[in-house]
Structures are given as C-alpha cells and as structure tokens.
Amino acid sequence: MTVKSNKGVILKAYPKGIPEVDENFELVHRTINIESLNLKENEFILRNLCLSIDPYVRITLQDPTSIIMKYGKGVLTGQVVNGIGVSEVVKTNNPNYKVGDLVYGAIGWEEYSHIKPDDASVSSFMLVNKELLKDTPL
C-alpha cells in the first residue's frame, strides 16, 4: 500500500486586508493512497515539487460575492489554495502524460494534487522539457 503524506494549506477565512497566516489559512494533515486510487479517464496524480506564490493568488482569496470574483474562479473556504507550480506525474490515466513527466500548471498548495478532467486546469498543463533542465536543479 502506498499511503503518502498529503499536507495542504486550506483557506480558513477570506482575508480582509493583508492575509494573516493563523487567521486565514490552516495546514491540514491528510494522506493519499496513490496505489489503490482508481483513476477515471483523463485523471492523473501529481507530486508537487515547486510552487510559485504569485500576487494573483491574493485575488483568488476574495469573498465570492466581491465584484472581482464575478469574473473569475476563487477559492472557497475549506478548499486547498491554488497556485502555479512544477510537478511530477506519479500516476496517470491521461494519454497526454506518462509517469515521470514534469508538468507546469495550476496545482494546489499541497504535496499531491489529484487532477480531474472536469478541472479547468487539466488542459492547461504544459510538459517541461527535462533535457533543458539536465544542468539546472528545479
């Protein structure tokens, strides 16, 4: 059985002003059983390696009733915060990705992300050319 730690950062409350770690976010300790997870068509599992914490993330943390969120998708309280990062495919049922591929795209602030075909981000992942990285650590 392949049970792995899958700690993640969830949005506890919408920030008013500058976000406060203890007030707005919570580190949750979860696990994921990669081996026994039956992936549906086009789903895949990523091991998240690098996360970019960009200013746009602040916009996604707005209350969904705000004028800004009427034009985009935000994070709901209790959900994992999202960002852009580099990940390794560790399990796949998607013909576009094979185990070991490095991809760049929208991932959760968590150790592993389960990407489903209904996620808007599933088609936005780009393959990272490992050959270009052979002399450069992630």
Automatic annotation (TrEMBL):
Start and end residues of each Oxidoreductase N-terminal domain: 8-119
InterPro entries: ADH_N_2 (IPR041694), GroES-like_sf (IPR011032), MDR_fam (IPR045010)
Single GO term (MF): oxidoreductase activity, acting on the CH-CH group of donors, NAD or NADP as acceptor
Keyword entries, A-Z: Oxidoreductase
Pfam family name, one: ADH_N_2
Annotated SUPFAM superfamilies: GroES-like
Top-level taxon: Eukaryota
Record's keyword annotation contains ATP-binding: no
PANTHER family: PROSTAGLANDIN REDUCTASE (PTHR43205), PROSTAGLANDIN REDUCTASE 1 (PTHR43205:SF7)
Name of the protein in question: GroES-like protein
